[in-house]
Every structure is written in structure tokens, then in C-alpha cells.
Design goal:
The structure holds two protein chains of two kinds. Chain A is an alpha+beta fold. Chain A contains 23 helices and 52 strands. In chain A, strands 8, 9, 12, 13, 14, 15 and 28 form a seven-stranded mixed β-sheet that branches. In chain A, strands 42-43-44-45-41-35-46 form a seven-stranded mixed β-sheet. Chain A has a six-stranded antiparallel beta barrel with strand order 47-50-49-48-51-52. In chain A, helix 4 runs parallel beside helix 5, helix 7 runs parallel beside helix 8 and helix 17 crosses helix 22. Chain B is about 10% helix and about 35% strand. A four-stranded antiparallel β-sheet of chain B has the order 3-4-5-6, with no helix packed on it. Chain B has a two-stranded antiparallel sheet with strand order 1-2. The two termini of chain B are about 25 Å apart. The chains are: A alpha+beta, B mainly beta. Chains A and B meet through helix 19 and helix 23 of A and helix 1 of B. The structure holds zinc ion (ZN). The site of zinc ion has 7 residues of chain B, from loops.
Chain lengths: ~1000, ~90
């Protein structure tokens, strides 16, 4: 028997699909939910915490229960999709979630028996002690037992598009109000975008065959509006598009599902992320029906009343043949009457309210429906589907009514999520027993049910007004016109909800997705929680992927009653993005794989690749760590490279260094103020090592300042510090030292920099260079010369970061690879080698040269590093100068850079380990400092370390201790230089 | 994402083109005269108001210029922007 619950004529083609491997038949136009219901399938999932059987609650995006995994093959597996939004296509394969071994026989349901062990706040109390038990026992157990669908393991083969758009009026929601607004604004000539999360525009009109607008069926009116919008050139229509996030100044994130509904998608993007900037926004996001809270309210077959109406009218599906309607709102009567007309037997309308009369009650009586007053639901029964409902009647008698569907109508909650995200105020509306829009943000308006205005006539009138106002405000004036005549049933004309009064019960579920019951909320209140935000976090109510669309108001209602306060006083939790879950694919767009982040290559990159270099990432740069030869391990290569530089010559690609050209008549004065050094004494053709401080007096960066001519300087920064240093310089240039005529240009990408270092460096570079006498007498250490190298312009810095005689060769980047080849050829011909970042780090540590960010930590002064002598104390001012005299920067017990030698020459200290005065410090004892660099030194044949130690320079010769994973290591304090302290090797 | 009008480019541009530069209108004291208290106040103390906040932004991925901006920290709306040295809206400018 297929589609036993399908009604009406066979309107559209049959489609086959599978659910948990079983084949079913549905129809074109079905959602997965409507197709399953057509086949009488209500049980579609197991709940998050207790593994309780769950069915389909709603017919829309608010669905908390019916979460499924859709499998389209390799890598195209999407968990946690709402079956109510999944459009059916031929061959669709869906799986239920959170069950083992099968949906019907689920062992995890035993957790339901243990529900008394998992009360509100169990995350916070039951499993907190002992700490190890959480990691080894409770967490794995809970993770296995509870959870949503499985994340796919294969890479996602689909691609995702992203698009920016601008419009005058963005209308969110294409129901009666949204359509009316869009048509009004579009007719006025405004650029309009209209988006709706559903596959078809029309909203509630898609399931409203009786209503008439201007004497035509409402569905036809909707079709006409859509047609007229299609004909407007400046209107963009976005179905299947969910506005999920509102940002400042009307910036909206919308995700469009482009091809998930197609059996054969071809090659369009799977989804498209729209980032829209709208002059005005009209929110026409409708309302959600509220469930009722009673014991057994989560059984499959217990549904929202209006959802049942939608399934009947829009999909031709009866959710049951024998139905009980639990009514706390007038709209329940429309559902009961419509379903009766569609062929279902309405066993009972259990109106939970005491005595409420309106025209549809009479209509129901005339139709022969049985209505009971002031009944209370005390239990439901049925395994895979509800089989009966037990009621306590007004007179106190108990009555059990057999049924195969139980419909709930608890009133309507305006969908104010997006408005609240946009910082719109909400006010509690007593008649609605719900929050409705209060003070609106500028440039945003609300129309229809989301505004608390129910009924078709109100929706259209408000939509038209909102569309007209939005168009006028964005420069397209238009006048008012007569609203259409609307003939509708009175179910919404007067909204009257009833607050259910059932006592808290451990089987009365409020938040279906997170398995939170009315008893949990009552417990939280009893335990002293008063803030609704705290109750939310403690019980996790409203914190599931459905954002509490169906549960928040009921939870608030229960909390308020338990506290004996009004709902309006208790207030509402914050609505957050996203409105419904958004895929990582849509958010990432093309920014993944090779496009995730730019990769920067040095000019020697191709050569390094050919030589089998080991690379490391330094920011976005790929840098060579070492160039191993003949199967060398990294450590062996580093040792060889270090020895080669000390004994012969090495060449290093330092192109990642930041380079700034500083030019202008006041360039010298500017640099004098930016660096601690006395730059004003720097003559043309010289360079010097310089320290830059923040205004707080702490070391920010270091580099070399070279003077090319009277008004032009070549300044280097650390590889990672360029952006920060340039911004810092620009800040002072533009806003503080505005009297100085100076310009800054980032030339990092323009110059390749190669350091040739070692006792034979001069003989390597000399024959290649023209126009510069590189002899020690003519080009001494820290000189700067301009000339040519192999026909390329050259800026030659006589500088060293290794302690050996050094030449830093700067050439235009384009010539970089060619010059690098020539240099390495000559270096290797004399027995030298290229060296990498690791060897450089050892060589500079042997000399005690600092690396900013390693020997400094943002609270390190020049004097801490032993660089006090660099400070141009006679200068009237430089950035950071005043701070150096603040008491805490001039304290005698500041950390100072020292060298450490381990008593065991083979022991390598751990960078970051603490320095203490004794091998067994008391717990909580004060540490004297920490290790900043620790290395094996091939030159010294032992290990070395640099450290910042309190008052370190007064401790030379002392023995201290460094913490290590193997125990305390004894170290002797010395000067922070291990090799050639006099600097005799620098001039070769 | 904020929409910010660069007073140099004279265009509304998205926030991602800009870099925040801290509170505006903080005068750097004369380092030769400032007491320790005045100097640390300049270094570390900011008003952090609820409401109108004068702040600096830099059009980093545009013209590169620093400018001043008045933003409401409650509504997160940019109320005005102006060039350094010009009068602020509170002083009758912009
Ligand atoms: Zn600009």
C-alpha cells in the first residue's frame, strides 16, 4: 500500500525515494516530510539526549525534530537537514539520525530510562568530579549516546558562490505582506530584492484555498503579484533563500540553495551566499505556531495544527485519519474544519480554554464536531505513532480518545529573530502572549504576522504601507492606494491565545531538539536561577540548531509561572545568527584549498624546491628551513650549514624582510623620532641597527636604517612586523608629526635580499659587483653602497646577522632568481652552501642577536636587552622615550637578557621554561624569568640558551635552575654572547 | 559590517577596507613637561563610552589616510566622519 494518506487527484508525477534504505513513493512538489506523511511514516528520528522516538512537528524551517541526513554520494552527505524543507526529487536517499542499530529498535533509548540522571544542568554538576572521569568516561559516553548527524568524512566536491548586491528595498518573506510590499516598492521604481526560504512564493497563501482577495482566490492573487514582480526589470526574486543574519547598517547575509533540490544538478553552485546592502528592509517573516506542553507531547503524530492544514492543502496529504485537535487558539478551528472537509475524522476538539465563543465554534458545531471545554491533556500513548490521548475533563473525569494524530494549537509567535538581530526593540503583547516589534531601527519596518498583525487583510495593508514608505524613503515617492477587499475566515481576526497551565512534568517536552522538559525549567528556577539567560544556559533550552523557534515562548511562560512573575518582566533571550543553520561551504565560498590564503614565495623558491629544501610557514611566506644533502636529516643539515658559514661562506634568502623607503626633506628628522637610535648622526653611505619602540617604551621592532642620500633612506623591518611598523609610522606621520615633509613607501616586494656571509664572502661577491669597491677599507661593516651586480641595480648593505663578514645584496625582485643562481654557483664552487632559517637562528643565537617576539614579549625595554647604549638620550624626543623614565620601566629588578649554559653540555633547555633559584622551589614560588631561545651550537660543540632573568646582569656566574619535563636542569648565567664577543670577524 | 564614509575618498565603503585606530581626539602631551600620571593617562586610559564615541579609522585598503569618526556604540551606527584637523560635528563641523 503506497501513499495511503494521499488525498485528492494525482496532481503530479510520482517520484521514488528511500528512507533508511526502504523505498517509498512521493509526488513532485512534496517535501521529504510530506512524502513520508503520505506513506503514513511519522517516526523519523531519535531525540538528542534521551533517544526518544520523534516525528514531524511542523511544515517549515522551525522544525525541531525531523532532522535527517541526505546522501547524494561521495562527499555530498549533509546531516541535520530539516525534512520539512528538503524538496523531494527522483532517487533522493535520506537517513534518520541518532539511532543504533535502527530507528525502531534503538538501544540508546535506554537513556530515556535514565532520564532522572540527566536533569537540567547535568553538564555542570553531575559529571564535574573527579575531573579525569569527565575526560575518560562521561564525555565519550555522552558523545556516543547523544548527538546530531555525522559530519561527512570526504571532501566536499561541490562549489559555493558568493555575491554582493545592493538594493533600495529588501523584502524578507514572500507571503501576503511581503508580496504586497515588494509590488508597491517595485511599482514605484525602486530596486527591490525579495527573498523567501521556501521554494515557492506565497507563504501562508499557498495553503489558503478558501480566502478571497478582490473577489478572486487568494492563491490567484498571489500568483498575479509574483507575475507582476517578474515583469519588473529592477526586481530580483530569490526563492529558496534564507536571510540568516542581520548586520549593522542593513547588511544582510542570505543563503540561496541553488541546486540541492535537483535530481541531476549539473554544474551550478550548490549554494550562493548573498551579501546584500539595502537602503531599507521590510521584514515580512510571518509567525510560528506554538506547541502545547503536556506529558507525552513529543510522540510521533503529535503535530502543530496549522502544519496539518498545510500538508492537506499544499501537498494533498492527511497527517491522520482520526484526529484530536487540542486548541488554545482560534486558528485550531480552521485546521479542524479543513481536515474534516479533506476527509479526516475529527474525534474531538479539546478546547483547553474555559468558555470562548466565536463564529467558527458555531461552524464547527454545525459541522458535527465534538467540542470539549477546559480539558487538560494528561498523557498520550502509542509507540511509533500516537494511538490515544488521555484527557482530564472539566468535571474531573478521565477520558481516553483513540487517534492517529494529535494536533496542537498554542497560539502564534511573531518571527522577530531578524529584527532582534538588527537591534530592534521588542515589546510584550498581552493579547498575543508573545513578543512583538517595539521601537524599530532606522530603515527597517515590519509588516504582517511578524509585526503581530494577524489576518490576511492586515498583512496586505501593512505590506503595502511598508513597501510604499520604503520606496519613498529611498527616493521613489509613491502614493497610497486602496487596499484590496479581503474575505477571510475569522480565525486570525482576533488573536486569542491561552496559556496552558499544566504542572511541570518530566515527560512534558518544551525544547524537543535539546530534550528539555517543563520539569527541567522548573528545577532550574527552584535551584535559584532567575535570569532568563541563565535558565537558557543551565537547561540548554532554545540552544539547539532550531534556535528555539517553537520552544522559547513556552519555556519563558513556564519559567515566569514558576517564579510567579509576568512573562514581560522575565524578558527574552537574545536571538543570534544564523536564523537556520548555514553550511560552512556557503560561508567559505571559494576560500578553501589553494585559495584559502595567499602563499608568498621568495625569489629563491624554485631553486629551493629543486634542491629538496625543507620549508616552514612564516606568516604567509614559505621559507626554507634547511637544504639537506644526500639524505641528511634536518639536524645534520643545520649543523653542516652552520659550520660552512663559520668556516667558509653561505648564502641566505632574506627577501622576506620588510623594506620601507623613507623619502623627503624631513626624512632624517622623522626617523630620528621613530627609532631610539641617534639617527641624525647617520651619514650618507652608512647604515645602522635600530630599535623601534611603541609609545609605551617597549620594543616593537628592529631593523636596519640605511642612508642612501640626503633625503632618502632604505629601512628594513622584521619579516612579520612590516604591516604593523608601516601603520605605526604612517600614524605618526599623518596625525602627530604633520609638520614633517616625509613620505613612506612599502618596497618589500620590489627588492630581493640575499645575505652572503662568512670568511670568504668578499671573494664571492667582489667579481660580480660593478661600481663598488668592496674591500674592507672602502666598504667597512655597516656601510651602504649603490652599484650594479650582473647588470642589475644593487643596494649593498655591509651587515651581518651571523657574526661573520656579511654582504646583504638587494636587487630588484625580477632579477632575484638570476642573481641567486649566480651567487649559489659561486658559493658552492668554493665549498660553501645555501643555508636556511634554522641555521640562521643558531648562528644569530651564538652571537646573542635578538629576534623581536622571541627575546622580547611586548613588555621588554631596550635596556632589558642590554641595548641601553643605543638610546639617543640627548634627543629631545622619540617614540617611547618618555615612557622609559616611568618608574616600572626603570626598576632595578627588571628582566635582563643573559646567556645560559647548562651544566650538562648536551642538555637542550626548553624554550619558555621557567628559571628558578633552587632545584626544588616551593609551590607557588616566584620565577626569575624564562628561556627565550635554546639551541645546539655546532660552533661551540655544546648547547646554548638565551633567557630573560630578573636582574640577570648582576647574576653572571651564578647557578640557577630551569624547569624541564625531565626535571630541573642546572644552568650557569653568563653574558648573552657565546662566540666572538669582540666582533673581530665582522670585517673578514 | 559597517559602512564608513571616507572623508578623503568621499565614498561610503565597507568596513573591511578600514582598520580601527582607537579613540580619537587624544592629545599627545609634551613629553618634556608631562608628569608620570599625565603620561600614563595618555598611554592607557580611554573613555569607553556607551553611546557616542569619537574614534580613529584608517582607510587601509583605500587611500591609506587616518580620519576621525563618530560612532554610536549602542546602535553601532557611524554618525559622521571628518578629516583630522577639521572640526568635529560636536564642534559644528562635518
Ligand atoms: Zn579613503
Amino acid at each position: 500500500m503506497t501513499q495511503a494518506f494521499r488525498i485528492g487527484d494525482a496532481r503530479s508525477a510520482a517520484l521514488r525515494f528511500t528512507f533508511d534504505g526502504k523505498t517509498y513513493e512521493g509526488r513532485a512538489g512534496d517535501t521529504l516530510a510530506s512524502a513520508l506523511l503520505a506513506n503514513g511514516v511519522h517516526l523519523v528520528g531519535r531525540s538528542f539526549k534521551y533517544h526518544r522516538p520523534r516525528g514531524i512537528l511542523s511544515a517549515g524551517s522551525e522544525e525541531p525534530n525531523a532532522l535527517v541526513t541526505i546522501d547524494r554520494g561521495c562527499g555530498r552527505v549533509t546531516p541535520n537537514l530539516r525534512a520539512t524543507q528538503v524538496e523531494l526529487y527522483e532517487g533522493l536517499a535520506a537517513h534518520s539520525q541518532n539511532r543504533w542499530p535502527s530507528l525502531v529498535f534503538d538501544l540508546g533509548a535506554a537513556a530515556g530510562l535514565a532520564s532522572r540522571l540527566l536533569p537540567a544542568g547535568f553538564y555542570y554538576k553531575t559529571f564535574m568530579w573527579p575531573p579525569a572521569a569527565w575526560r575518560h568516561f562521561y564525555e565519550p559516553l555522552i558523545r556516543r549516546a547523544a548527538g546530531l548527524g555525522q559530519a561527512p568524512r570526504d571532501p566536499d566536491p561541490d562549489f559555493y558562490a558568493q555575491q554582493y548586491a545592493h538594493c533600495d528595498v529588501l523584502v524578507i518573506g514572500a507571503g501576503a505582506a511581503g508580496l504586497a510590499a515588494a509590488v508597491k516598492a517595485g511599482c514605484a521604481g525602486a530596486r527591490v530584492m525579495l527573498c523567501d526560504e521556501q521554494n515557492a512564493f506565497g507563504g501562508s497563501l499557498l495553503a489558503e484555498p478558501q480566502a478571497r482577495i478582490d473577489d478572486t482566490p487568494a492563491t490567484e492573487w498571489a500568483a498575479r503579484q509574483i507575475e507582476s514582480l517578474r515583469a519588473m526589470p529592477d526586481v530580483r526574486l530569490l526563492p529558496r533563500s534564507t536571510a540568516f543574519g542581520m548586520h549593522a547598517q542593513n547588511f544582510i547575509g542570505i543563503v540561496e540553495r541553488v541546486s540541492d533540490h535537483l535530481a541531476e544538478p549539473g554544474n551550478p553552485p550548490r549554494e550562493r551566499l548573498w551579501q546584500v546592502r539595502a537602503r531599507r528592509i521590510v521584514l515580512a517573516t510571518g509567525a510560528h505556531e506554538r506547541p502545547l506542553v503536556f506529558p507525552g507531547d513529543d510522540r510521533p503524530g503529535v503535530m502543530l495544527a496549522d502544519a496539518a492544514r498545510v500538508y492537506a492543502h499544499r501537498h494533498g496529504v492527511l497527517v491522520g485519519r482520526r484526529i484530536v485537535v487540542a486548541a488554545a487558539h482560534d486558528s485550531a478551528y480552521a485546521a479542524a474544519l479543513d481536515l474534516q472537509r479533506a476527509g479526516a475524522h475529527i474525534a474531538l476538539i479539546a478546547d483547553l480554554r474555559d468558555s470562548h465563543e466565536f463564529s467558527m465554534v458555531e461552524e464547527a458545531r454545525v459541522a458535527g464536531l465534538n467540542i470539549s471545554r477546559a480539558a487538560e491533556i494528561v498523557a498520550t500513548s502509542g509507540r511509533r505513532r500516537v494511538a490515544s490521548v488521555r484527557l482530564r475533563m472539566r468535571d474531573g473525569t478521565m477520558q481516553t480518545v483513540a487517534c492517529d494524530a494529535l494536533l496542537m494549537s498554542g497560539g502564534w509567535t511573531p518571527s522577530v529573530h531578524l529584527l532582534s538581530q538588527a537591534r530592534g526593540a521588542l515589546r510584550f503583547d498581552d493579547a498575543l502572549q508573545a513578543f512583538a516589534p517595539g521601537a524599530l531601527p532606522p530603515d527597517i519596518s515590519c509588516a504582517g504576522a511578524c509585526n503581530g498583525s494577524f489576518g490576511l487583510a492586515a498583512a496586505i495593508a501593512e505590506g503595502q504601507a511598508a513597501g510604499r514608505d520604503a520606496a519613498t524613503a529611498s527616493g521613489f515617492p509613491t502614493s497610497a492606494s486602496a487596499a484590496p477587499l479581503v474575505d477571510e475566515r475569522p480565525s486570525f481576526v482576533r488573536q486569542q491565545a491561552h496559556t496552558p497551565t499544566s504542572a511541570p512534568h518530566p515527560k512534558a517536552f518544551v525544547d524537543f531538539q535539546n530534550d528539555v522538559t517543563s520539569a527541567d525549567i522548573a528545577l532550574a528556577v527552584r535551584e535559584g536561577f532567575r535570569s532568563v539567560e541563565h535558565i537558557k544556559r543551565y537547561t540548554t533550552t532554545g540552544m539547539a540548531t532550531d534556535q528555539g523557534k517553537t520552544s522559547n515562548m513556552n519555556a519563558l511562560d513556564i519559567a515566569a509561572r514558576e517564579m510567579g512573575r509576568a512573562m514581560s518582566e522575565v524578558g527574552l533571550t537574545t536571538f543570534r545568527q544564523p536564523y537556520t543553520p548555514v553550511t560552512f561551504g556557503a560561508l567559505a565560498g571559494p576560500a578553501r584549498g589553494d585559495l584559502y590564503e595567499p602563499v608568498r614565495h621568495t625569489p629563491s623558491h624554485e631553486w629551493a624546491l629543486r634542491r629538496g629544501a625543507i620549508f616552514e610557514d612564516a606568516g604567509q611566506w614559505k621559507r626554507a628551513s634547511a637544504f639537506p644533502r644526500d639524505g641528511e636529516k634536518l639536524e645534520a643539515a643545520v649543523t653542516r650549514e652552520c659550520r660552512t658559514v663559520r668556516e667558509c661562506v653561505g648564502v641566505f634568502d632574506a627577501s622576506t624582510l620588510g623594506k620601507i623607503e623613507v623619502a623627503g626633506p624631513d626624512a632624517l628628522e622623522f626617523l630620528d623620532r621613530m627609532y631610539v637610535n641617534d639617527v641624525s648622526k647617520l651619514v650618507i653611505g652608512r647604515c645602522r641597527y635600530a630599535l623601534m619602540l611603541g609609545e609605551n617604551g617597549f620594543v616593537m621592532d628592529d631593523g636596519i636604517v640605511g642612508r642612501l642620500d640626503a633625503h632618502r633612506f632604505h629601512v628594513t623591518t622584521t619579516s612579520g612586523g612590516l604591516a604593523h611598523v608601516l601603520a605605526h609610522m604612517e600614524d605618526f606621520r599623518q596625525t602627530e608629526f604633520t609638520d614633517l615633509r616625509v613620505w613612506l613607501t612599502d618596497v618589500t616586494e620590489q627588492w630581493a635580499t640575499f645575505a652572503v656571509q662568512g670568511p670568504r664572502a668578499r671573494e664571492i661577491v667582489a667579481p660580480l659587483i660593478e661600481g663598488v669597491d668592496v674591500s674592507a677599507g672602502e666598504a667597512p661593516h655597516m656601510s651602504l653602497r649603490e652599484g650594479q651586480i650582473l647588470d642589475a641595480p644593487l643596494r649593498l648593505f655591509r651587515a651581518s646577522f651571523t657574526g661573520e663578514c656579511g654582504f646583504e645584496i638587494n636587487v630588484p625582485s625580477g632579477a632575484g632568481p638570476r642573481i641567486w643562481e649566480a651567487l649559489t654557483q659561486r658559493v658552492e664552487a668554493v665549498g660553501g652552501c645555501a643555508y636556511g632559517l634554522e641555521a640562521l637562528d643558531v648562528l644569530r643565537a651564538e652571537k646573542g642577536y635578538i629576534i623581536v617576539g622571541q627575546e622580547t614579549d611586548g613588555s621588554t625595554t631596550p635596556d632589558d636587552l642590554g641595548y641601553g647604549r643605543m638610546i639617543g638620550r640627548a634627543k629631545p624626543d622619540f617614540i617611547g622615550k618618555r615612557s622609559l623614565t616611568l618608574p616600572h620601566l626603570a626598576r632595578p629588578d627588571r628582566p635582563q637578557l643573559v646567556g645560559l649554559l647548562t651544566r650538562d653540555p648536551a642538555a637542550v633547555l626548553e624554550e619558555g621554561s621557567q628559571i628558578v633559584p633552587s632545584p626544588r622551589p616551593a609551590i607557588g614560588a616566584h620565577a626569575l624569568g624564562h628561556v627565550t631561545t635554546a639551541r645546539r651550537s655546532p660552533t661551540l660543540g655544546r648547547t646554548i640558551a638565551l633567557a630573560l632573568v630578573e636582574n640577570g646582569r648582576a647574576r653572571l656566574g651564578d647557578t640557577l635552575y630551569a624547569t624541564a619535563t625531565t626535571g630541573m636542569l642546572a644552568v650557569e648565567v653568563g653574558a648573552p654572547v657565546f662566540y666572538d664577543p669582540s666582533g673581530s670577524r665582522l670585517d673578514g | 559590517m559597517l559602512l564608513i564614509r571616507c572623508p578623503f575618498c568621499e565614498m561610503d565603503r565597507p568596513e573591511t577596507e578600514f582598520r580601527y585606530g582607537g579613540e580619537a581626539l587624544i592629545e599627545r602631551p609634551d613629553p618634556a613637561r608631562a608628569t608620570d600620571a599625565e603620561w600614563t593617562d595618555y598611554l592607557y586610559n580611554r573613555t569607553n563610552p556607551k553611546g557616542r564615541h569619537a574614534e580613529r579609522w584608517r582607510h587601509l585598503h583605500g587611500c591609506g589616510r587616518f580620519f576621525n569618526c563618530l560612532r554610536d556604540t549602542v546602535s553601532d551606527r557611524v554618525l559622521a566622519t571628518w578629516r583630522p584637523g577639521e572640526r568635529s560635528p560636536e564642534e559644528g563641523g562635518a
